[in-house]
From TrEMBL:
PROSITE patterns: THYMIDYLATE_KINASE (PS01331). Its EC number is 2.7.4.9. Residues 9-197 form the Thymidylate kinase-like domain. It comes from Brevundimonas balnearis. PANTHER family: THYMIDYLATE KINASE (PTHR10344), UMP-CMP KINASE 2, MITOCHONDRIAL (PTHR10344:SF4). This is Thymidylate kinase. GO terms for molecular function: dTMP kinase activity. Phosphorylation of dTMP to form dTDP in both de novo and salvage pathways of dTTP synthesis. Pfam families: Thymidylate_kin. It catalyses: dTMP + ATP = dTDP + ADP.
Amino acid sequence: MTRGRFITLEGGEGAGKSTQAARLVEALERQGRRVIRTREPGGSKGAEDIRGLVVRGDAERWSARTEALLMFAARSDHLERTIRPALERGEWVICDRFADSSRVYQGVAGGLDPDFIEALDEAVVGPDQPDLTLIFDLPVETGLARAGTRAGDEDRFEGKGAAFHARLAEGFRDLPRRFPGRCVLIDASGDPDAVSARVMAAVEARLG
Ligand SMILES: Nc1ncnc2c1ncn2[C@@H]1O[C@H](COP(=O)(O)OP(=O)(O)O)[C@@H](O)[C@H]1O
Ligand SMILES: [Mg+2]
């Protein structure tokens, strides 16, 4: 059995990750591939329980260090129960956020030592790095305006203030320099069809 491919979608609030994850799954299924869509924090029963702790409540509820540990605890369960079994079955895994969100939210924007995050990544993700990471790049205000139209109470990170979100955008934009073999910047402006076309071009260019 050929191992599946692992694609992650990253970027700030409202950049269009969830919209494009659904569209990418549909496009790959039309090509006859077996695909699962999953997300972080979450993607397995235990990880979804942890999600409730991190995406709700007061913006200052957790320190960046504690938040990183919660995210990697969730990620460990997600990898064990969902991602690795699917890849081993030969399925493609499309994941809405993954470890780069820890690098950028808790590291770049949260001020946590990047070496601490890389040590967690090595211990938890290890060799199961994404084959491709699509980074959705959009002006912060456009993203927050889009995100503000969504329903629900999972708004803890949206409450962190303009300076935090500006650092997030910088952090995501810097990822292709840090991980050039894996990360591609996607212009997330324009309508969903235009963004989907850029996504499919990047997937075809990198994964064939
Ligand atoms: N290209 C786009 N143009 C305008 N609105 C969009 C676009 N893509 C997504 N949206 C809308 O913006 C909001 C945020 O998109 P979403 O996919 O949830 O972003 P993310 O998952 O990155 O936070 C949603 O209401 C979605 O329907
Ligand atoms: Mg989303």
